[in-house]
Amino acid sequence: MNNILRFLQNMSKVFLEFFIKPIGTFKESLFNTLIPFSYFVGRRLVKKFSRFLEVQRFL
Predict the structure, then answer these.
(1) Backbone CA torsion sign across 20, 26, 29, 30
(2) Confidence band for 7, pLDDT divided at 50, 70 and 90
(3) DSSP classification of residue 59
């Protein structure tokens, strides 16, 4: 019984090391690439939209 518990503990440690930590780093890297990208796209959209509004004002 004790051996089974120890085996399960080791398996859960391995699971944590190999599955949950890479997911966390993947999330962080995804976040770090998404934030500047969305900022860049948002700025371009705002510029286009403000230009569109100026054109509407002239019409």
Answers:
(1) negative
(2) very high
(3) -
The vertex-50 CA angle with 47 and 55, nearest 5°, equals: 125
Structure tokens at 20: 């949950």
More confident residue, 59 or 7: 7
Q: What 3-state DSSP class applies to 1?
A: coil
pLDDT in tens, 37-56: 888 888 998 998 888 888 87
Which string of DSSP letters, residue by residue, matches 16-44? IIIIIHHHHHHHHHHHHHHHHHHHHHHHH
Give residue 30's identity as a one-letter amino acid code. Answer: L
